[in-house]
Design goal:
There is one protein chain. This protein is an all-alpha fold. The protein has one domain. The protein is built from 1 helix and no strands.
Length: 46
């Protein structure tokens, strides 16, 4: 009875890890995009 529970736990942990990595990538990607947009906006203003 203990074995399937551990397999499920590992699967849940792996899915959680994957989604966290994806979320971090999305956050950093949008951050860099906004940074370049701000730099572009400054160039236009100057």
């Amino acid at each position: 009875m203990e074995r399937p529970y551990k397999v499920l736990l590992v699967k849940m942990w792996f899915i959680n890890l994957k989604s966290t990595v994806m979320f971090d990538l999305l956050l950093s990607n949008s951050y860099f995009e906004s940074e370049s947009a701000i730099a572009h906006f400054r160039e236009i203003n100057v």
